[in-house]
Every structure is written in C-alpha cells, then in structure tokens.
Amino acid sequence: MTIVNADDQTGLYLLTPPKIDLAVFPDRLKSVLDTGTIDCLQLRLKDVSDDEIRKAIDAILPLCSDRDIPLILNDRPDIAKKSGVDGVHVGEEDASYDEARAIMGEEHIVGVSCYDSRHRAMELGEKGADYVAFGAFYPTQTKEAKTSVTPEIIEIWTTFTTVPCVAIGGITADNLGPIVEAGADFIAVTGGVWNHPDGPEAGAKAIKAAIAAASD
Predict the structure, then answer these.
(1) Which of 93, 110, 129, 210 has the most crowded CB, counting CB atoms within 10 A?
(2) Exposed (0-12), middle (13-18) or buried (19+): which is 126, by Cβ within 10 Å?
(3) What is the pLDDT of residue 93?
(4) DSSP readout, the chain?
(5) In b/e form, how buried is each residue of 65-78, taking b as 16+ CB within 10 angstroms?
(6) How many Å apart are CA 186 and CA 58, to the nearest integer?
(7) For the segment 113-126, what is each residue's pLDDT rounded down to a tens digit?
(8) Which residue has the higher pLDDT, 2 or 37?
(9) Which positions fall inside the Thiamine phosphate synthase/TenI domain (predicted)?
C-alpha cells in the first residue's frame, strides 16, 4: 500500500493533535474525514501509554478504512504492525528505517522524517521508504522544530526522484502556496486544521481550497 493523492493535486496529510479525548475525538474526526479533503491521516500522540495508543487506533482505524484513507502511526512500528494500521512514520530519534521496515514488511507504508537533509532523504528513498518528509517550513506550536527549510528543498527533490515528499511544519492555508508550487506531493497539517477558528472542517476545506488555488 502507498499514500496517494485523491487527484493530481498536492494531497492533504492530516496529523492528529498530540492529545485527544476518545469520548469526543472520533466524532470530531469523522466530520473532518467526511469533508472528503483528507488523503492520509497520521495518529501522533505524545506522552501517552501504549494502551492509550491502541485504544485510539481501535476508535480511529474503522473511520479511515471505511473511507479508504491510510492511517499511519507515528513512532511505533511494534504497535503499528499488530494493530492493523496501514503504516508507520519514524523520525531520526525513533526506530530506524531498517527496523521499521523489518517489522512492517513490504506491504505496509514506512515514511521517514528527513528534516533539512536531502542526503538522508536520498539514502532512505533508495532503501525503499514510501515517502520522505521535509521541514519545518514555518514556526510551529506542535513541537520544537530541529531545522528550518525553504521550498527549494522540494524543488530539488522532485527534480531528481519520484519518491513522494511530504512538507511539514507550521503550514496553513495562508502560507502553503510556495510549497505547493515547488511540487510537494503532500502537505502535512495539524494546527491549520484543528485550531481553525471556524472549526476543523472549515480548516480542512480552507487548506484544500488553497492547494487548488496554488495548483492553477
């Protein structure tokens, strides 16, 4: 399986908030997924127990499966493999790509954070990573960014390889234009959707509309 765009435009790769309340979050997520704007979802929880991660997967995976939206788990290939999600995303301080691939197998998605390193991206792309993620492009409140990059890294990457790339870090409907124009395959968003003043559904629609405008 791989992550794919619903159309030929840059796709919207949505990340969950780092903390979620399972009493209300599944219904909230369902409303966002039902906008038809989401191409991939990553479950990224911070400072929670393994049991909480598993319960979140149990609640979220059916929503994604019913809509043919891949669900990617952040950091934990061990849980991802056993839980039935579509893939895993690993950073430099998480499980290595080799370890994640060995656990997940060839049939599952393994994505990697490459920050500002084209060398790391090329190395892992050649090993078989399903996508590479570059960022942060803008300041973000979700996590402290290790690096800062410009759309040029996307332009260079897409010139030399067909491995999909994901742009991440502080991206909103107001600032994504240059990244889309540079050729990013996916825009990863957290706050730009979940913290939108008119609600996450409006946030997702605004991102998708901005992508369409930048693609014209």
Answers:
(1) 110
(2) exposed
(3) 87
(4) -----SSSSPEEEEE--SS--TTTHHHHHHHHHTTT--SEEEE---S--HHHHHHHHHHHHHHHHHTT--EEEES-HHHHHHHT-SEEEE-TTSS-HHHHHHHH-TTSEEEEEEET-HHHHHHHHHHT-SEEEE--SS--SSS--S----THHHHHHHHH--S-EEE-SS--TTT-HHHHHHT-SEEEESHHHHT-TT-HHHHHHHHHHHHHHHH-
(5) eeeebbbbbbbbbb
(6) 26
(7) 999 999 999 999 99
(8) 37
(9) 12-192
Residues linked to residue 73 through DSSP beta bridges, in sequence order: 43, 88
pLDDT (0 to 100) of residue 181 = 97
pLDDT reading at 57 higher than 90:
yes
Whether the full predicted model's pTM is greater than 0.85, yes or no, is: yes
pLDDT digits (tens, 9 = 90+) for 135-161: 999 987 766 666 789 999 999 999 999
Binding residues, as ranges, are 42-46, 74-75, 94, 113, 140-143, 170
Which residues are annotated as part of the binding site for Mg(2+)? 75, 94
- Strand-pairing partners, residue 133, are 113, 166
